[in-house]
Amino acid sequence: MHIRRGTQEDIPAIINLLRLSLGESLIPKSEALWNWKHVENPFGPSPILVAEDGGQLIGIRAFLKWEYIYQGKAISACRAVDTAVHPDFQGKGIFTSLTLQLIEEVKSEGIELIFNTPNTKSTPGYLKMGWEKWGNLPIQLHWNWASLFSKNQDAFDSDWDSIPPLIEKLESRPSESSSIKTNLLPGYIFWRYRDCPLFDYKFVTDQEKYLLIYRVKDNSWGRELRICDCFYLENLDLGKVRKDLKSIQKKSGATWVSASGLHLEESLKLKLAPNLPIGPLVTLRPINKDLIPKSLPWAWSLGDLELF
């Protein structure tokens, strides 16, 4: 078996391997999605390792580059994402070999930590490789019982072309948060939400002070309005935000609203309900020996940790 860095020329074979190993599942595999995630990412192209046997691609491991900001200092990170092993070669330690080798490579490139949200099947393997459980993301829920009796659900769209001036202000403003948040590099908001090929993200804004990004999702509990992110400037009118949020909840016909208990409560004080530990399990893998990520004041949004 030969392990090497993945290249642009490998992408078609990588997509085929992902489909063969994982199926389409909840997230369809495509070159467009791969390029959006691993090539166009404003934090930089993803470090990728592939394993070959006799010229055949049999394994893939990718880390998505990310960057956080804390007390004015950027923290370089990666999110452990796409991985697959050919069915004929599973159970031979290829996943572990690829993951551990890629950790060493990104360490030499200045990456300080790796995070991810593994499922119950993959969590034990990550723990054996040095990952630590941070815990489940706390979630705030707010139920809109009136929607159960309402048949009026307006269709509405968000005009992303109307907000570049606000986004420019948001992405150029120095972070003053006392918690760790995603670093808003220029181009991040459009890349993460407008250009995402998987979900139809919408927003509500006053065009001047804040941008609240959400998506509507139908599931077994009813229609969910998921608050994915909220970016804002100083002197924000919280009453206006609450009023706008109530309006889009009504228009969407959402049965319930969900949001990260760390993100909105930390920033906007838009407390919807008591925090419940029902969000995705977050695991962390420290690389910088001087960094203890479990003890840091994280303020993840749901958009930070969604699977994509």
Automatic annotation (TrEMBL):
<dbReference type="InterPro" id="IPR000182">
    <property type="entry name" value="GNAT_dom"/>
</dbReference>
<dbReference type="Pfam" id="PF13527">
    <property type="entry name" value="Acetyltransf_9"/>
</dbReference>
<protein>
    <recommendedName>
        <fullName>N-acetyltransferase domain-containing protein</fullName>
    </recommendedName>
</protein>
<feature type="domain" description="N-acetyltransferase">
    <location>
        <begin position="1"/>
        <end position="154"/>
    </location>
</feature>
<dbReference type="InterPro" id="IPR016181">
    <property type="entry name" value="Acyl_CoA_acyltransferase"/>
</dbReference>
